[in-house]
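Notes from the 1:1 (GR / supervisor)

We went over the backlog. Supervisor wanted to see one worked example end to end before approving the batch request, so GR pasted a single chain during the call. The sequence is below; no edits were made to it. Supervisor asked that the structure be written out right there so they could see what the output format looks like.
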Amino acid sequence: MAKGDIVLIPFTFTDLTGSKLRPAVILIDTSIDLTVCFITSQIKWAEATDIELSPHIANGIKKPSLIRVRKIATIDRKLAVGKIGTLEKAYMSDLDAKLKILLKLTT
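Structure output shown during the call:
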């Protein structure tokens, strides 16, 4: 796995009654953990730092979605069930730019 790969991870429901597999894009891949941004098909929740993601055979996403750049988590890499795709270069550039804005890394 590498930065830009889209993997399925179990998301726990907020009431802790269960979980569901959801896609996430890898930001950082270490031997122990993955740092990811969550992906949702709830495009009505769009924020300024989110990225609209169109379905494509390369990314494995099945319907229009959002990369929720503000929704970052570090998880045990064993939780990644499998890779479904990889972000295309244009999305990777946009993701890097949004992360710089979010983390105030630009002047």
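Supervisor's comment: The radius of gyration is 13 Å.
Batch request approved.
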